[in-house]
Amino acid sequence: MSVRFFLVVNKQGQTKLSRYYSLKEQEETPLNKRVTLEGEISRKCLKRKENECSFFEMNNNMIVYRRYASLFFIVGCDPQENELGMMEFVHCVVETLDYHFQSICELDVMFNIEKLHFVLDEMIANGHIVEHAKIKIVEPLQMLQL
Q1: pTM exceeds 0.85 for this model
Q2: What digits encode the pLDDT tens for the residues 98-114?
Q3: Among 87, 86, 88, 112, which Cα is nearest to 100's?
Q4: Mean of pLDDT values over 2-6
C-alpha cells in the first residue's frame, strides 16, 4: 500500500502532525502547496457528517480519515488503493499510539510529537506500510525511554 501523506488534525482544523512521503523526486509537494492542501483536506473532513463515508477523492489523492475523540487521523494515498485497507491502517496507528500512551489525546500529540514521528517511521518506509504489529513498533520506543 502506498501512502502519500499522514495528517493529524484537531476539531478546530489545526494540523498537529504532518508527514509526507514521496516515491519519486518529481512527486514531492512544495511546502506552500502542502499548507493549502492540509487546509482544504481538514476543512472537507470537518464538514462531513457522521453518516457519510470516511473516504473521498481530492486532487488525485484518495483521502481516508477516521475521527477518534477530538482528533482526525487522515491518510492520503493513491486513488487505486483499497480504502478499507487504509482505514484499517489508520486504526492500527491509533491502537499503537493508545498502547504506548494509554489513550492518545491532543496533548500527547503536542508534547510527544517526536514519538509520533518515530511510530510512523516504524510503520511506513518510503510511502509503503511495512509493519503493523504494535508490540514490534512500540518496543524500540520503550527501549529509548530506559
Answers
A1: yes
A2: 988 888 889 988 999 99
A3: 112
A4: 91
Residue 108 to residues 16, 61, 103, Cα–Cα distance (Å): 11, 28, 9
Instruction: Please list the residues that pair with 125 across neighbouring strands.
Output: 128
| 96 within 8 A of 67, measured Cβ to Cβ | no
Separation CA 98–CA 105 (nearest Å): 9
Q: What angle do CA 107, 72, 69 make, to 5 degrees?
A: 60
Neighbours of 25 (CB within 10 A): 6
On whether the CB atoms of residues 124 and 89 are closer than 8 A, the answer is no
CB 45 within 8 A of CB 17: no
